Amino acid sequence: MSAPAGQGAGRGTGVRAPSRARIAEKTLRTDRWWLSPLLTVLGLSTFIVYATIRAFVRTAYWVPEYHYLTPFYSPCVSESCVEGSRHFGAWFGELPGFIPLGFLVLPFLLGFRLTCYYYRKAYYRAVWFSPPACAVAEPHAKYTGETRLPLIIQNVHRYFFYVAVVVSLINTYDAITAFHGIDGGFGFGLGNIVLTGNVILLWAYTLSCHSCRHVTGGRLKHFSKHPVRYWIWTQITKLNTRHMALAWTTLGTLVLTDLYVMLVSSGAISDLRFIN
Ligand code: FES
User: Fold this and answer.
1) Residues 63-110: pLDDT tens digits?
2) Residue 152 DSSP one-character state
3) In this structure, is residue 17 part of a structural domain?
4) What does the pLDDT look like over 137-153, one tens digit per residue?
5) Rounded distance, CA 27 to CA 33, Å?
6) Where are the beta strands (DSSP E) in 118-176?
7) 25 assigned to some structural domain
8) Total structural domains in the chain?
9) Which of ligand 1's atoms lies nearest the C-alpha of 157?
10) Which of 154, 210, 248, 250 to mutate to test the pocket of ligand 1 (most atoms within 8 A of CB)?
11) Which of 8, 31, 154, 245 could be stapled to 3 by a disulfide with Cβ–Cβ 3.0 to 4.6 Å?
12) Domain limits for position 171
C-alpha cells in the first residue's frame, strides 16, 4: 500500500516520521510544560557561571586557621596553591592564571555531571529541546540518539564514575583534616558541618549513580549466588531513586560550601566555633 500523499519520501524521523500523525501545532498541551525546562536551564546556568568564576579567581579558597579548603580547589597540587592547602604535595610548578588550581579533577567532575543520566535528560530537554517535554515536538528534523559524535561520548560515563569515587575520597580527606583547631589540635565549627554535610551528600549522589548500580549488581545471572552484591545492589537501587534530587542538592551544597569558605577566608564573616 502506498503512503498517503505528502508522507514518506522527504519526511524525517521522530514526530516527522511517515508513521506519525500529521499535526501542524508544535503541541496540543495547554499546561505550563515550559516551566520545568526553563527552571532547569536557569539552575544549570547559574551553577556554571558561579563555578567558572570561582574556579579562576584564585582567592579565598583556603582558611589557614581551620584548614577549610573549598571543593572547587581540591586537590590543590601546584606551587601556585597557598601554603597549607596542598594536602597531597606540589606535583606541578607555578600555573599560569588561565589554568584553574583545581584543574586536575575539574574536567572529570564536569564530565561526570555532563554524562550523568539525569543531567542528560535535563539538558536534552531544557537546552537542546530534544524533546522539550512529553507531547511537544522537537525542532530537530532527525534523531540520531547517542550513536555518533558528540553524544556517543555519553557512553564513557562509567569511567567518570570511577574518577568521581576517587574525588569523593579526596573531599572526605579534606573534610576530616578540617577538624582543626586554631592552636593546632582538634577544632569544630560551623564550617565543619558545612564541609562534612557536603561530602556526605556528594557520596550519596556518587553512589546513587546508575553506573554504580551496574558495578554492584550488573552482569549477575543469579542474585541468590551473590548475596552480598545483591544486598549492596538493593541499597544502591534505593538511593538511585533519589538520584535527581541528589543531583540538584549537591549542586546547591557545592555552591554553599564554596561560598562559606570564601566568606570566612576573606574575613567577611567569622566561623562559628563550637570547639576552638
Ligand atoms: Fe548520574 Fe551516574 S552520576 S547516572
Assistant:
1) 999 999 999 999 999 999 999 999 999 999 999 999 999 999 999 999
2) G
3) no
4) 888 877 778 888 888 99
5) 10
6) none
7) no
8) 1
9) 2
10) 210
11) 8
12) 32-275
